[in-house]
Design brief:
Elements (H helix, E strand, L loop, with lengths): L1 H5 L5 E2 L2 E3 L4 E3 L2 H14 L2 E10 L2 E10 L4 E7 L7 H20 L3 E2 L4
Parallel strand pairs: 1-7
Antiparallel strand pairs: 2-3, 4-5, 5-6
Length: 112
């Protein structure tokens, strides 16, 4: 079903700007908007949880089919700051990158 859903995945629109680098990027809501409908249509969902790998916090992204088959990826979190705000930022950043990588999502500019 992943094969079938791939052709229906939308482009994640670059809807946000990084003020530090003055660059555009696709926000987490934009990435989720690009995948949600096609995945659900074909009986697929994504879950994302945190776990520990030795001494590091990792993000576990799992694509699950309604049959029970699944595939997971693990991404270590790199914190810019050692506090909850730093952890939250690292999780959000990793969630976007993990989904884009796992599903090979295209990122693009909004068409006017």
């Amino acid at each position: 079903m992943l094969f079938r859903s791939q052709s229906e995945l939308r482009v994640a629109v670059e809807d946000s700007t990084n003020p530090h680098y003055k660059s555009k990027y696709a926000s987490l809501p934009s990435v989720l908007n690009a995948i949600r409908t096609p995945l659900h249509k074909w009986g697929l969902i994504i879950t994302q949880t945190t776990d520990y790998d030795d001494t590091r916090i990792i993000l576990v992204t799992t694509l699950i089919h309604e049959s029970g088959q699944s595939i997971s990826t693990k991404l270590p979190l790199i914190l810019g700051r050692d506090d909850m705000q730093g952890l939250g930022g690292a999780i959000t950043y990793a969630r976007r990158y993990s989904i884009v990588s796992l599903l090979v999502i295209q990122i693009g500019r909004a068409h006017v």
